Amino acid sequence: MMYSEKVMEHFQNPRNVGEILNADGVGEVGNAKCGDIMKMYLKIEDGVIEDVKFKTFGCGSAIASSSMATELIKGKTIEEAMNLTNKAVAEALDGLPPVKMHCSVLAEQAIKSALLDYSKKNNIHIDGLEDINFDDDHHAHELEEL
Ligand code: FES
């Protein structure tokens, strides 16, 4: 079987679907090649991710990745959320097929994009976000290669 049971389970029964009104941070990222889009909403209090919701217009692996990623950062600090890699998301799903690894990249990037929005709105600095430009071509190429 190509997909793990966990991928199938999170795809069929995704956690934290929806949006947060008046979210503290909202991020949207897409993959130019497949056209899938992921939107992430964060409620942050005292540096902790109190709530997180997502909307993903994309493939099953992207939905499973977003679901797992939200579970992994809920209740965690901003720093811990920053440290969540796409590999950790894929591992938590018991793996993704190589051609589907970029779906987990979207989840990592959606969280970082939402944190960037939060940092801008609150005029604070979050270590590790300064190097990321979600809109530039370079990044789109990076995603395409994955
Ligand atoms: Fe592109 Fe899954 S195929 S996000």
From TrEMBL:
<feature type="domain" description="NIF system FeS cluster assembly NifU N-terminal">
    <location>
        <begin position="2"/>
        <end position="123"/>
    </location>
</feature>
<dbReference type="GO" id="GO:0005506">
    <property type="term" value="F:iron ion binding"/>
</dbReference>
<dbReference type="GO" id="GO:0016226">
    <property type="term" value="P:iron-sulfur cluster assembly"/>
</dbReference>
<dbReference type="Pfam" id="PF01592">
    <property type="entry name" value="NifU_N"/>
</dbReference>
<dbReference type="GO" id="GO:0051536">
    <property type="term" value="F:iron-sulfur cluster binding"/>
</dbReference>
<dbReference type="InterPro" id="IPR002871">
    <property type="entry name" value="NIF_FeS_clus_asmbl_NifU_N"/>
</dbReference>
<dbReference type="InterPro" id="IPR017787">
    <property type="entry name" value="NIF_FeS_clus_asmbl_NifU-like"/>
</dbReference>
<protein>
    <submittedName>
        <fullName>Fe-S cluster assembly scaffold protein NifU</fullName>
    </submittedName>
</protein>
